[in-house]
Amino acid sequence: MNPDDLTALIAKETGLPVERLLPQATLETLDISSIDLVSMLFELEDQYGIEIQPEELTREMTLQQLFDRIGVASSQ
User: Fold this and answer.
1) Is 31 in contact with 20 (CB distance < 8 Å)?
2) Is residue 20 part of a domain?
3) Is residue 75 part of a domain?
4) Residue numbers of the domain that contains 35
5) Which terminus of the chain has a lower count of CB atoms within 10 Å, N or C?
6) What is the DSSP letter of 4?
C-alpha cells in the first residue's frame, strides 16, 4: 500500500476531499465520525490485512500518525 492508496481510501470512507487530508490534520479537525472511522478500519483490514483496533485511535491523532501506525510514509 502506498500513501495515495491510503489517502484515497480515507477520502472514500469519510467523504472528505483528498486535498483536506494533510499529514498534520487530526482526526478531530477533519471531523471524521466514529462510524466513518470504523468503516475505514474495516476496509483497511479487508483490503490490506491491517488490523487496528478503534481504541488505538484518538481524536488528537494526526493522519501522519495513522500512516506511521499502518506503516506507510506520507507523500505530502
Assistant:
1) no
2) yes
3) no
4) 3-70
5) C
6) H
- 7 class by beta-carbon count within 10 Å (0-12 exposed, 13-18 middle, 19+ buried): buried
Amino acid at residue number 10: I
Per-residue model confidence as pLDDT tens digits over 3-53? 888 899 999 989 999 999 999 999 999 998 888 888 888 888 888 888 888
Query: Closest Cα partner for 22 from 36, 41, 3?
Result: 3
Domain with residue 66: its CATH number is 1.10.1200.10
Question: CA Rg, the chain, in Å?
Answer: 11
76 occurs within a structural domain: no
* Calpha distance 47→21 (Å, rounded): 20
Domain count, the chain: 1
